[in-house]
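note to self — DONT lose this again. spent like an hour looking for the file last time. sequence + predicted structure for the chain T wanted, 86 res
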Amino acid sequence: MHTIEVTLLEKIGNDAVKQLRHNKHSLGLPFMINAEELADNECYLEYPDGKIKLVALRTNSDRDFTIIRELSLIEAMRIRNEFLQR
């Protein structure tokens, strides 16, 4: 694929993720952020009020996340900059 096509596909994908995030927050729901540095059963949840929590599914049959901890303001800013400001 040509560089221009790849760049266009990346933009389309990033725009779709931003729209999904906006839609989730407008409904009062958290937005899930997956990160390679986390364990397979962990992810971040970003809430409409700006808080980000590290959560996990404790077992394969869990249907609800268990909160591990809430990120500090600085940690939350880092996560947003790394994953959401592309």
